[in-house]
TrEMBL record:
<keyword id="KW-0560">Oxidoreductase</keyword>
<dbReference type="InterPro" id="IPR020904">
    <property type="entry name" value="Sc_DH/Rdtase_CS"/>
</dbReference>
<dbReference type="InterPro" id="IPR036291">
    <property type="entry name" value="NAD(P)-bd_dom_sf"/>
</dbReference>
<dbReference type="Pfam" id="PF13561">
    <property type="entry name" value="adh_short_C2"/>
</dbReference>
<protein>
    <submittedName>
        <fullName>SDR family oxidoreductase</fullName>
    </submittedName>
</protein>
<comment type="similarity">
    <text>Belongs to the short-chain dehydrogenases/reductases (SDR) family.</text>
</comment>
<dbReference type="GO" id="GO:0016614">
    <property type="term" value="F:oxidoreductase activity, acting on CH-OH group of donors"/>
</dbReference>
<dbReference type="InterPro" id="IPR002347">
    <property type="entry name" value="SDR_fam"/>
</dbReference>
Amino acid sequence: MKQVAIITGASRGIGAAIAQRLAKDGFAVVVNYAGNVAEADKVVGAVRADGGTAIAVQADVASAADVRALFERTIAELGRVDVLVNNAGIMPPNLPQLAATDDDIFDRLVAVNLKGSFNTMREAAAKLEQGGRIINFSSSLVGTLLPGYSAYVATKAGVEAMTSILAKELRGKNITVNAVAPGPTATALFLDGKTPELIERLAKMTPLERLGQPDDIASAVSFLAGPDGSWINGQTLRANGGMV
């Protein structure tokens, strides 16, 4: 039986790249999506066209009931869960400074980025096979601490803290818990609404003088999910080309 990886928010961008990479690594993948079934089905189709195993499962990670159903359906259809990749997250294109942040923006960021990661980690802690992997998603903005990102960074700093604590709490289960913290990455979501000048400036922030690509992030996840990452635990890996 193939090992099984759930990737949240996997219908496009970084999540889609992770799903396709882990499928190439030999995992059966669960392409979780919140609302865009057509995009999720495209990812499933691409995996299957390459000879892999994939299913698409709708779930809003902010809902504990949805997350429970996501794990239950995965086990019912694929028999097990070995890897959780907590990729789902939101960042509105224009984030105000703290004093101008309204309750709706704050509450939505917390619900998806922080509570969503908590919901999936809680299920994974109970349902992952021995030797499993939990790979959360933070952001390199936790290191840059730029104005305008206070609420967003607070959610990601919380994810990093939960990552380290859960790694300790899972003693005896041989399950590792780590986080990946990307820098600026060339996805449609990231590029939308940005001028070419801003994109160029962001690209030049790294010593490697380019934006990250979804495959760069997928490679980091592949390492943590695979045998070579077995001794890495409770850590946050900043995949940002040296930006911070």
